[in-house]
Amino acid sequence: VQAAIEAKTAAIGALAVTVTSPVAASGTVTVEQGDSYPVAHGRVGITFQVADPTHALELDAEGCTVILRLDQATWTASTVASNSGGYLVTFTPTVVTTSVLTFPQTYRLVAEYAGSPDDVSTLSRGRLKPNVNIPAVP
């Protein structure tokens, strides 16, 4: 068990994580406050490509939960799919979960592994910027 934990923590800081949906080249994720991001209707959700070609992180294993932690919210990944480069981690926030976002904030993409309260790996950090709704004028 110790070796598995060390293998996961050794990758921290060495990972290449790319966001492939509402994002600028800088890595800033931009969402519309009060919008939903389902995979249906042409939306792709908010998808991170986590570079891990050896799949040492086991992000798609039972007992692993990938979470996006924000100052104002915490989202759990809706899907984690293995591919040749590593993993595609997709979040599909809802109207309710984007409505609470009122200011630019940092995000932290983390993997939490069941079985040990101390087994958490930070995969990436960045900025999330909500485009705040413009109130209707009476």
Quick recap:
The chain is mainly beta and 138 residues long. 10% of the residues lie in helices and 40% in strands. The chain has two helices and nine strands.
Q: Compute the number of helices.
A: 2
Instruction: Tell me the strand percentage band.
Output: 35-45%
Note the main sheet.
5 strands, mixed
| Percentage of residues assigned to helices | 10-25%
Oligomer: single chain
- End-to-end distance, in Å? 62 Å
Task: Write structural notes for this entry.
The structure is a single chain. The protein is mainly β. The chain has two helices and nine strands. The chain has a five-stranded mixed sheet with strand order 2-9-8-4-5, with no helix packed on it. A four-stranded antiparallel sheet has the order 1-3-7-6, with no helix packed on it. The longest helix is centred in the N-terminal third of the chain and has 9 residues, at 2-10. The protein is elongated, with a radius of gyration of 16 Å. The model has no long low-confidence stretch (mean pLDDT 84).
Features:
single chain, 4-stranded antiparallel sheet, 138 residues, mainly beta
Topology:
Blueprint: H1 2-10, E1 17-19, E2 29-32, E3 46-51, E4 64-70, E5 74-76, E6 79-83, E7 86-91, H2 95-99, E8 105-113, E9 120-131
Parallel strand pairs: 2-9
Antiparallel strand pairs: 1-3, 3-7, 4-5, 4-8, 6-7, 8-9
